[in-house]
Design goal:
By secondary structure, the chain is an all-alpha fold. It has 11 helices and no strands. Forms chloride channels.
Length: about 210
């Protein structure tokens, strides 16, 4: 999105506009991720922390807090970006085609967070996870008993007996691996080492945006 903004609003005279859009896009990410990611929520437990992080000014903070939105305010920074793009069009700094391209990028950015909220709202039932885990471990417990090789004198003379269960071992590796992956995907934005961390990446992106 910021690459499109830089292409449509170049030059030093549009620097303040580009910086405002970059800051609001980062604010949008911080507000949205605070409702999904535990790490981001601990970094920004309240809106005042976003002001201290220079993602929001005092005036914007007052506007944000005075807004009555019982179902969440994560879309507010996007509204500010749309308004400033419309203002640039009214000032004849961009034409209709450029405004259309910028708004498409903004709406695509917003739709990505909306989809994350949809995935976050639909929880996997706890009974389903328990049934899957019990079925997987129970299957291999039965395999441990049922797939033991038959060791008698006749079978040892006429058959090639494989004492190590090769195919059962491969099954166990694949099935348990898929089970662990599914358990981690249930909460990809938690606090485990394998979970996604968003704060450092967001700070790096903001620094890049402000230099555009």
């Amino acid at each position: 999105m910021m690459m499109m903004v830089s292409a449509c609003l170049p030059g030093h005279e549009n620097l303040a506009v580009r910086q405002a859009i970059a800051r609001w896009s980062s604010l949008q990410a911080a507000v949205a991720w605070s409702g999904i990611s535990v790490r981001t929520l601990k970094r920004f437990p309240t809106e005042r922390h976003m002001v201290e992080a220079k993602l929001m000014t005092e005036e914007e903070y007052d506007m944000y807090m005075n807004l009555d939105a019982p179902h969440g305010k994560w879309f507010v920074p996007i509204m500010w970006i749309v308004n400033i793009i419309k203002k640039q069009y009214a000032l004849k700094k961009i034409d209709t085609i450029q405004m259309d391209m910028l708004l498409k990028q903004v709406y695509s950015y917003r739709d990505g967070f909306a989809m994350l909220f949809v995935y976050d709202w639909v929880k996997i039932p706890l009974v389903y996870t328990q049934v899957v885990a019990i079925a997987t471990y129970g299957y291999f417990f039965i395999c441990l008993i049922g797939r033991q090789p038959k060791l008698d004198q006749k079978s040892m003379e006429t058959e090639i007996t494989i004492l190590f269960p090769i195919f059962t071992t491969f099954q166990m590796l694949f099935y348990l691996g898929w089970l662990k992956v599914g358990q981690f995907l249930m909460n990809p934005f938690g606090e485990d080492d394998d979970d996604f961390g968003q704060f450092n990446a967001r700070i790096w992106k903001l620094m890049i945006f402000l230099e555009m």
